[in-house]
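Supplementary Note 2. Why include the ligand at all?

Several targets in our set were suspected to adopt different conformations when bound, so apo predictions alone were not considered sufficient. For every target with a known small-molecule partner we therefore ran a joint prediction. The input for iron/sulfur cluster is given below.
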Amino acid sequence: MKEKTEEGLYGNQERENWPPYTYRDYPDITPENYRSFLSFLRTENTRHLEMELQAWISFCDSKCTFCYFPNESFHKERIEEYLLALKKELKMYAETCYIRSSEFDEVVLGGGTPTVLSSEQIVDLLSYCQKTFNVTEDPMIKVAASTHNVDKKKFKAVVDYAESVHARCAQMDIGVQTFDDSIRKMFNMQDSAVEAERMIKTARRLGLYVCIDLMFNLPGQTMEGFREDIKRALKLDVEGIDYYALSVVSGTPLAKQIQRGKIPPMGGSDLEKRMYLEAYEMFEEAGYTPTGHSRFARVAEWIDERCCVGWPWTGQLTAGAGAFMGYFERYSYVNIEPASAYINAVNRGRIPIAKLSISSEEEEMRKVMMRLYIRQPVDKQKFREQFGRLPEETFPRAISKLEKKGLIKVDNREIRLTKKGDVWRYNIAWEFGPRKKP
Ligand code: SF4
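The joint prediction is reproduced in token form.
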């Protein structure tokens, strides 16, 4: 009761860990919506916003128990076939009118673990993207990595490649998750924290920007353990930290282990909140700015990342088996998986989509308000230009409620998340989302 009085709107509720409109709810593809997608791709992109291009290597050489991303066991002998299909899919998009009239500011190898590839394969795929699409003069190049299968040669290959295309930064996204070796083992991570730290230092020494994934509220994690994780992350002086509460997704090995009582459950909502708020202060004190979905960054390139700040959503071409983050304007899609079905679909000349969501205008308005969860403002005039009315006229109750509670700030120009609202940003997104299923 006490907490409800102090915290206001959400003090007595759980923190949401997902915003509305995630890929999980997209409907399966039908012949009609596939045709609608193809005819959209025949139109020109008139938005003139720089987009992001992601090629997913949907394979890992070991499976982390918490992971819900699409990935299969890596087999060296099968990868060439997959890479060929991936290039074919990318080419199918590149030949459409929409993509020919689009420009990409970020080229990302995601997944999965792209560092299961050799350095030659990594560079070949990056070069393929560069020559197949309109890429800006100073793109960002990003490669996701696991510390146990990356090495100096792969880091160096990315640095050299980025230099050759005049990239404004070359980034490795490295999944550390925790520096606690007992939890790393529980998660089936393949190397020790010390080995992971060594690789991160090597990457930074070679000139790469490093962003690490760090999770909190882990099974059995104490406040002391959580603080130790942050201190070790800060000591590495990385350019960014993607900081997430662990989300136990049903069907993952971790969810099954918790269900069977093999490992302790994660802490409750109160502990999670305490950890987040304390971490926020520690990151801020160390010079990091909260930005994007879950990032704390200390470099301008990430604080003002063009793909994030573009109004209202820039667009993201995501290719590869199971890739689920693709969207262009009203169209959001998820690709076919597993890799064998994906390769078959591509070889039949089909854009390999499994699910496709086409937003109505009402959903578009709701999605624009989702900018708050990525810590971006909602520009009121731009909203009016696009929809013919202001956000306050569209969502009067939600905006007034959140403003009164100090979770958002509204002025003549824009609507912004406040520092107090930051911890609740997914809950705030739900205020503008569709009604939740019971
Ligand atoms: S390396 Fe990354 S993608 Fe692969 S299982 Fe672990 S968390 Fe998932």
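The CA atoms of residues 93 and 99 lie 6 Å apart. The domain at 19-358 is CATH 3.20.20.70 (TIM Barrel). Comparable summaries for the other entries are listed in the accompanying table.
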